[in-house]
Amino acid sequence: MTELLNGIPLLTGWAAPTAWALTVLVVTLLGWTRTRHLGAAGRAAVLGGGPVVGLASWVAVDVVWRPVADGLGWFVWLWVGIVALVVLQAVVVPRRSRAGRRRRRLDGALGSLAAVAAVLVAALLAVNAHFGAYPTLGAALGLTVEPGTLADLPQSAPESASSRPPGPLLASWTPPADLPATGQVVEQAIPASDPRFAPRPALVYLPPAYLTADRPLLPVLVLLAGQPGEPRDWFTAGNAQASLDAWAQRHHGLAPVVVVPDPLGSNTANPVCSDAHLGNVATYLQRDVPAWIEQNLQVDTDRSRWAIGGLSNGGTCALQVITRDPQAYHSALVLSGELHPTLGTPEETIAVAFGGDADAYADNDPLTLLGRRLYSGTAVLFSAGVDDETYLPAVQQLEAAAKAAGMTTELRTYPGGHMWSEWATAFADQLDWLGVRLGLTS
Fold first, then answer.
1. CA–CA separation, 314 vs 264, rounded Å?
2. pLDDT in tens, 332-372
3. Coil, strand or helix: which one is 344?
4. What is d(CA 82, CA 344) in angstroms, rounded to the nearest whole number?
């Protein structure tokens, strides 16, 4: 069943047209069988109710609550309004004679449930296609990753870091005959030293070479998801394991050990990747996570062969980390990062996250930090979608500032906008760059 669900595509060309066609059909049928039999006031209430619900939801979530700094976007609220319209059409039934009322009630209830279910499926298909999120039904259901635990893996004593031959690891590594075909994902809690911050469990990708009895000392990549988001997103929507496995297959089982911690605490939290109002998240990523990696994984501890990366809010966070502490990680991937860490506006961010301390905000703002000092030996690969009207200009400005600050930089663009399909493509493409930076290849 899992294989079947993983084989049902959701991002092919049929998804969005099917969603709209199904919605038009449901609205038309309900309009003909239900809404047209209402009085003028009833029809106005039903037809106007959907847009009102969509607008009210937008105000409540994106304007008042604002769990996501940039908002969920008009497309989400459009579909909230459409779903609300169908619900109103389905539940508002015109009064009729008593004859056959019980049968009509049953038929009406079943029809209402079917209509609402159909438009909910249509909404999910359309929103998923709009954001280029889950490529298959299996990915949407979380079936593309079934993490194990570190305790399930064989233990071994790797060579010391000092005994690693000079040059790219690929040149000196001889894969064993029993090299696994794929890597393995495990789930692991990585606690924070600050009790105010409670991260969700991390996911760790261990490449085929790590799963051998005489594992080499592999480099490390720390990856961060966006907000809203969770570590699992990189493996469901981002297709990270398939991309890493494919790269490893081309390089005799070698790939970075990839650790995906949680820099948020929940889908709706935004600690702005700082030691701020929701806990010491900067300390978590720059101290706690690296310490856990070195204590629990057999990896190369040379930080020049460590990288951090992320997308959107996570891309901003990756750049914050490497500008605050360039010794923690020497390379970074910044996919569609924001120009500044933000809760909406600089004023709101300073007031809420930093208690009104503008200097603390500046100390966590990459653009400010890049203007203060030089960063020799640090490399950052920036990227964004060509249709991303908000984040592409931000990434371009950040790349220019990083280059002026002495970083080795590169800027790449990919088809698409601010969406997972673009990030999945970008990550797979950027593994070659990472391989060189992390000492795996030349």
1. 9
2. 999 999 999 999 899 999 999 999 999 999 999 999 999 99
3. coil
4. 27
